[in-house]
Amino acid sequence: MASTIVNAPCTVPSVKGFDTQNYVGLRPIFSLRFNSGRTSNYGRFQHLFVVRASERHDGHVKKIERSIEECEAAVVAGNVPEAPPVPPKPAAPVGTPVIQPLQLGRRPRRNRKSPALRASFQETSLSPANFVYPLFIHEGQEDTPIGAMPGCYRLGWRHGLVEEVAKAQDVGVNSIVLFPKVPDALKFPTGDEAYNDNGLVPRTIRLLKDKFPDLVIYTDVALDPYSSDGHDGIVREDGVIMNDETVHQLCKQAVSQARAGADVVSPSDMMDGRVGAIRAALDAEGFHHVSIMSYTAKYASSFYGPFREALDSNPRFGDKKTYQMNPANYREALVEAREDEAEGADILLVKPGLPYLDIIRLLRDKSSLPIAAYQVSGEYSMIKAGGVLKMIDEERVMMESLMCLRRAGADIILTYFALQAARSLCGEKR
């Protein structure tokens, strides 16, 4: 298509920095000179100026020989341009039975027939922003590998941890949760080290906030890393875990972490009433902005073994079944969720993750609060072991497991795969 201007008077204003190369498809038949800084009047002229539609192919301008009107006229006259023929129907293998097609009004496979269509209709997404990266820290300078968790380390809080956080932020993971390996000499039955303002966790929070101001730091609120008994609460001489006295300690721990700069405190102890008490304690100290992620449905699971090795926090006696939930129970999760929500929790967490997809979906359907899922150490280690033994494709199973947690209803996922999965999502191979 062409527009033609003939014998038209032309007043050209000054155009500073005009570059005709940037205007693809404008082809003056003669050269126009634009004078910068003043108005030039070319008056009337007899030259012909033509503007033609054109195409760009591989960075070059290709001239169209015929106008749109000419192309349309050719088609009307029956001179249809050539195009590739209809492809032949692919042949079925020899022996395929010849049948009448099923009379189906709906064939769901139509929406799955190509990668583009599958991507268009994908209902669940996964991104590094969905991950919270659990990191183990200790007082040492060296990073110590955790035997039961390949690829995981107890990180030196001043160096290794900082390097790991920087790697995570590089691929979009901006949330972490800290778990300390506390020296045995600082462990006591009442877990007093948990609220030492100069303890390992508060020092680490202050360091990270200084180096990474935008980092979202979650903390664990429980006594087991600090207890000489290895339980989440204070143990009476008859073996009973004392509820209200433990909650008193947890409140001091949460306030200490908030004072250091924690963004989200996460009571994982499963004591009754601790969410409301912690919320009141935080508010009384002016920490209204600090969120609470409650371990709402934390089950007495066998999937925690590698984690307890990492922190050396196994119970010295008995088990945790009097405060953690029975894996056989479903409705009980609703009781816990309703209490936590009423007491002021900001996020509800389910732990473990993949074996408890039904609980994640239950809370998602019954609560408007964000739902978190913890893909625990046992889940992580099984995938790692299967990959090492070449029994599964580690990366594919990793990504599928995370997608399943999201599909079940988790808004965020605490996962030791956070860095590896984020790199996969970003297309990195390291």
Give the helix tally. 12
Mean pLDDT: 88
Q: What characterizes the major β-sheet?
A: 8 strands, parallel, barrel
- Report how far the terminal alpha carbons are from each other: 53 Å
Note poorly predicted spans.
Answer: 1-56
Query: What fraction of the residues are assigned to beta strands by DSSP?
Result: 15-25%
Shape: elongated
Beta-strand segment tally: 18
The strand order across the widest sheet is 7-10-11-14-15-16-17-18
Radius of gyration: 33 Å
Helix content percent band: 25-40%
Q: Structural class of the secondary elements?
A: alpha/beta
Give, in order, the helices and strands.
EEEEEEHHEEEHEHEEEHEHEHHEHEHHEH
Report on the structure:
The protein is an alpha/beta fold and 430 residues long. It has 12 helices and 18 strands. The protein has an 8-stranded parallel barrel with strand order 7-10-11-14-15-16-17-18, surrounded by 9 helices. A two-stranded antiparallel ribbon has the order 1-4. It has a two-stranded antiparallel ribbon with strand order 2-3. The longest helix has 18 residues, at 243-260. The relative contact order is 0.10.
Key descriptive features of the protein:
430 residues; alpha/beta; 8-stranded parallel beta barrel; two-stranded antiparallel sheet; 12 helices; elongated; disordered N terminus
Short description:
The chain has helices spanning 68-76, 115-120, 160-170, 200-211, 243-260, 274-284, 305-311, 332-343, 357-366, 377-388, 394-408, 418-425; strands at residues 2-6, 10-12, 40-43, 48-52, 54-57, 60-63, 131-138, 144-145, 153-156, 175-180, 216-221, 234-235, 241-242, 264-267, 291-298, 347-351, 371-375, 412-415. The chain has 430 residues and is α/β, with parallel strands linked by helices.
